[in-house]
Structure formats: C-alpha cells, structure tokens
Amino acid sequence: MKNPIKAKGGGAMLIGSYKCTTDAKGRLNFPAKLRADLGTRFVITRSLTDPCLNVYSLEEWARVEEKLHALPIVKAGNIIRMLSGCASEAEPDAQGRVVIPAQLRTYANLEKDVVVIGASTHCEIWNKDKWEALCSALDSETIADVMNELGF
C-alpha cells in the first residue's frame, strides 16, 4: 500500500476537490479518499474565518483543542465555545454518508450542490457557488504576491 503524504503534525495530508450533493435529510456522501485519510470517525464544525464547515480527524481535532486551551480563557473562551458548541462527531454509514446537522448546513448555506476540499490538515465543505466565487476571486497577482513572500 502506498504511504500517504504527511501533513505538518504527522497526520495524512488531505488534498483534492470533490463535487458532492446533499440529500433532503442533510446527508452527504463524503468522498472515499478523504474518509480513508480522516479515519472512521471525525468532527464537523463551523469555520470561524470562512462561510464553510471544517472537518477534522479526531487526532487533528485534539491538536486544535490543545492549542486553544493553551491560550488564556479570556482570549480563547468564545472561540472554544463556538467551535465545540457547533461541533458534531460524524461516523459514515455503510454507503459513506454522513449527516450534516441543520445548524451547520444553515451556517454554511449548504443546499444540494456542495464541494468538499482537502485543506492539508483538515477538510472543508463549501456551498458550490461560494466555492466557485472564492476560486474566481483568487487572481494570479495575489498568488504571485504570496509565492514571493514564501521565497518562490
């Protein structure tokens, strides 16, 4: 078996972009490749920076919580509450489907067509139109600026 690419911190690096659909019950057939790298159970919560959902392996979720709990509670308390309070543990059924809770679907405006992307250490679930708008807005000048800053 081929060894997975490792992300910073030792977990599998989650990569790729997958067009998916949700059904009327809020179930999403989570991409098999990403499921294999995330593990049999994972955590879905809202993103604090984008209108999407973040999906963490249990190992990565523990790292996120550890980093947040290392900060003073006055600084991280509301973030911990938001992430944990909105979080849902997911375990795919035999067909690979996971249920996205209604409050998370509403937050990310997830309707029928969604995009699931690997974002290195976690996955993201996006409304298809919002994802396409984000990709369109990322122009070559912005990319070049970041690459220059990184020394490429």
Q: How much strand?
A: 15-25%
How far apart are the first and last residues' alpha carbons, in Å? 33 Å
The whole-angstrom Rg is 16 Å
Q: What is the helical fraction, as a range of percent? A: 25-40%
- Biggest sheet statistics: 6 strands, antiparallel
Mean pLDDT: 90
Number of strands: 8
Number of helices: 6
Q: Based on Cα principal axes, name the global outline.
A: globular
Poorly predicted tracts of residues: none
Query: How do the SSEs run, as a string of H and E?
Result: EEHEEHHEEHEEHH
Class by helix and strand content? alpha+beta
What would you say this structure looks like, in words?
With about 150 residues, this protein is of the alpha+beta class. About 40% of the residues lie in helices and about 25% in strands. It contains 6 helices and 8 strands. A 6-stranded antiparallel beta sheet has the order 1-7-8-4-3-5. A two-stranded antiparallel sheet has the order 2-6. A hairpin with a 6-residue loop joins strand 3 and strand 4. The protein is globular, with a radius of gyration of 16 Å. The mean pLDDT is about 90.
